[in-house]
């Protein structure tokens, strides 16, 4: 069994990370959890055949988790998907998927289906709305969902909250347990998902020192877990391995990493770089103006091998 963190970022575009999406592989089965920005590109980088995606589980309907769902549906087909693509998610998933197929990409699908028959004709996408509880028991996989708390304490109308359901997932196969937190703060659902898991893939938006104003304290309390709580959740649940994902771009991190190689000045703001003492050194100025330039000073992708499964990052130099 293999777990690949295809993206570890959030809604803000981050040159170093794609949006949070995780892949679980077991034999011929490739299960995506969410379909955020860049998912198909990251699958390509990871060497996963794009037509081999069988199933997608959506945790919730924020755009950074479903933004590239269309790409999964269409490109898996164009790359030889043989069977229906099964998509599970909280209520409204079926409506969203059907809208994409019948109202957004209907002409594109018809064009390729009729005009390019070598693709073998459109392979349907089947969406299913689910709630907490057992989802699938295939004999090979046992998959269950739990409701988690992602903004439930914010000041939103009961009518909206009735439509806002966020899920985490627990996958059991080959005697191992993988828990996917989804976007959540600590809550009973997360505790149940994580209980005794071999691996918990846990959202962690901010490092603890970054929670330094009222807005961010509120965010860490009601919206998404941060560095002040994720370790406690994992320890309480007896999780054997904790993988953090869904990070906010951090300018402080850029600053610290640059400090490590002596390129500290001018990296926080491009204006400072242009005026600063190092503007005569082209690399520093380019780094500040174009975040992509920072790749030259990023660490290599993290690869860890666990005895139970491999957990590796496919986001390139961006992911660490
Ligand atoms: Zn979210």
| Count of alpha/pi helices | 12
CATH class of the largest domain: Alpha Beta
Sheet-strand content, in percent, reads 15-25%
Q: Unreliable runs, pLDDT <50, ≥5 residues? A: 253-320
Compute the separation of the termini in Å.
22 Å
**Oligomeric organization of the protein chains:** single chain
Number of strands: 14
Secondary-structure content class: alpha/beta
Small molecules bound: zinc ion
Order of helices and strands: EEEHEHHEHHEEEHEEHEHHEHHHEE
Mean of the pLDDT scores? Answer: 82
Q: Look at the structure and name the CATH superfamily of the largest domain.
A: Ribonuclease Z/Hydroxyacylglutathione hydrolase-like
Largest sheet, described in full? 8 strands, mixed
C-alpha Rg, in Å? 21 Å
The largest beta-sheet arranges its strands as: 6-5-4-3-2-1-14-13
Helix content: 25-40%
CATH topology of the largest domain, what is it called?
Answer: Metallo-beta-lactamase, Chain A
Bulk shape? globular
How many structural domains in the coordinates? 2
Task: Tell me the CATH architecture of the largest domain.
Answer: 4-Layer Sandwich
Write the layout of secondary structure elements.
Blueprint: E1 2-7, E2 21-26, E3 29-33, H1 39-45, E4 55-57, H2 63-66, H3 69-78, E5 85-89, H4 93-104, H5 106-115, E6 125-129, E7 133-137, E8 142-148, H6 158-163, E9 166-173, E10 176-180, H7 188-194, E11 199-203, H8 214-223, H9 230-237, E12 242-245, H10 251-260, H11 270-275, H12 282-289, E13 303-305, E14 310-313
Parallel strand pairs: 1-14, 3-4, 4-5, 5-6, 10-11, 11-12
Antiparallel strand pairs: 1-2, 2-3, 7-8, 8-9, 9-10, 13-14
Zinc ion (ZN) is lined by residues 60, 62, 150, 183.
């Amino acid at each position: 069994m293999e777990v690949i963190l295809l993206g570890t970022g959030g809604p803000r575009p981050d040159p170093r990370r794609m949006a949070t999406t995780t892949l679980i592989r077991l034999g011929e089965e490739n299960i995506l959890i969410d379909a955020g920005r860049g998912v198909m590109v990251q699958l390509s980088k990871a060497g996963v055949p794009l037509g081999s995606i069988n199933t997608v589980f959506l945790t919730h309907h924020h755009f950074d988790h479903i933004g590239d769902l269309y790409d999964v549906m269409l490109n898996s087909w164009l790359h030889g998907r043989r069977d229906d693509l099964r998509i599970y998610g909280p209520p409204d998933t079926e409506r969203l998927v059907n809208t994409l197929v019948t109202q957004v990409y209907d002409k594109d699908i018809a064009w390729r289906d009729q005009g390019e028959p070598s693709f073998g004709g459109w392979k349907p996408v089947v969406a299913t709305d689910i709630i907490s509880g057992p989802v699938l028991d295939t004999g090979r996989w046992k998959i269950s969902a739990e409701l988690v708390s992602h903004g439930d304490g914010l000041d939103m109308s009961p009518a909206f909250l009735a439509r806002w359901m966020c899920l985490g997932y627990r996958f059991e196969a080959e005697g191992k347990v993988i828990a996917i937190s989804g976007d959540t703060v600590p809550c009973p659902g997360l505790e149940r998902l994580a209980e005794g898991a071999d691996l918990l893939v846990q959202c962690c938006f901010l490092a603890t020192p970054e929670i330094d104003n009222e807005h961010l304290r509120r965010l860490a309390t009601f919206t998404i877990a941060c560095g002040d709580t994720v370790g406690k959740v994992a320890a309480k649940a007896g999780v054997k391995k904790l993988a953090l994902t869904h990070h906010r771009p951090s300018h402080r991190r850029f600053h610290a990493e640059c400090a490590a190689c002596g390129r500290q000045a001018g990296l926080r703001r491009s204006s400072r770089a242009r005026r600063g003492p190092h503007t005569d050194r082209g690399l520093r100025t380019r780094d500040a103006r174009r975040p992509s330039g920072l790749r030259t000073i990023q660490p290599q992708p993290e690869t860890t091998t666990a005895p139970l499964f491999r957990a590796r990052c496919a986001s390139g130099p961006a992911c660490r």
